[in-house]
Amino acid sequence: MASLAYAVYSPAYQGLPDMMERVVQTTAVIAFFGAYPPTVVLGIPLILYFKGRVRASLANCAMVGASIATFPWFCLAIFFGPDEAYVNNHMTYQHGMMTWWGLLEAIELLTEIAVFGIAAGGLFWLIAAAGIKKQPPSKVFD
Fold this sequence. Notes:
The protein is mainly α. 65% of the residues lie in helices and 7% in strands.
């Protein structure tokens, strides 16, 4: 759902003239490359680690969702940049190093991704943990 919401918010062009096809293709790319791998690599181990330690509240699920969604894009933005890049006539990368304008662009992108990660974490809480009564953390996911 979060991938679909992001695709509706910011559909990629990909040479497709039809808006619906752009949203569908963007949803698939975001889901298969930006959502599912981090969920499998980070999300499942975090659920297993926090299983008996932290209560599955809406705030906890939302913050973990934001962390899982943002972490891979943070790593890409910080460690793997182009040699030179421009956005709106502002240089974002120069000689392989991120400029101040590039840092602002990265923060904007990561903030957008974090907002959709918060929504995904909230959706996870709504589906998986909303009906759980006040119990000790060790009994929440049993």
